[in-house]
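Record type: monomer structure entry
Structure origin: computed from sequence
Chain ID: A
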Amino acid sequence: MSNRSLTLPARACAATVLAAAVFLAGCQKQAPEAQAPAKPEAAAPAPAPAAPAATAKPAAPSDTPDLKIATVDGKAYDLAAHRGKWVVVNFWATWCKPCLKEMPELSALDAMREHIEVLGLAYEEIEPADMRAFLVKHPVAYPVAIIDTFDPPAAFETPRGLPMTYLIGPDGKIADKFLGPVTAHDIEAAIAKAGGPQEQPAAVATKS
């Protein structure tokens, strides 16, 4: 009878040990699962919400920009009123050395080519009186307007750098654009490529 009384506790002990082993095995299996929440972090760098922003480009500036602005000499400039001409829209600033370097050639284009007109858009914070004083020292043949850098015209993309130049065709559509300084040759070559008049010798002046 003593042997039987010893056998029951032994069985109970064995069952307890077995249950403990199963419990520990279960804990060990759960350890890798504790790392499972780290997996969603791999998806974090993928900015899925940013994709709609890229597709929001339809709200971007039109290929046929509409621009009405006052120039520093107090006149109103309407880009649509210049249809039939090739219009060079040049974003620049008084502190931009490449901009100042290209101004004489742009001025010559405006003065010497009947089919080409230039508009300078000063992309900087400057008072009109200061701009007029600047243009006395750096005169150009084309009109100049000052752009509000906090509210630039929606007709064009915000410049990523200066100078930034757009070539508008006689139909009012953007024919070409240039980031960085341009020359008269660049402009006339772009006009010829778009089907306009071929580049003319620099000495030829056709504007009255």
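Annotation 1: The first helix runs from residue 2 to 34.
Annotation 2: The chain has a mean pLDDT of 78.
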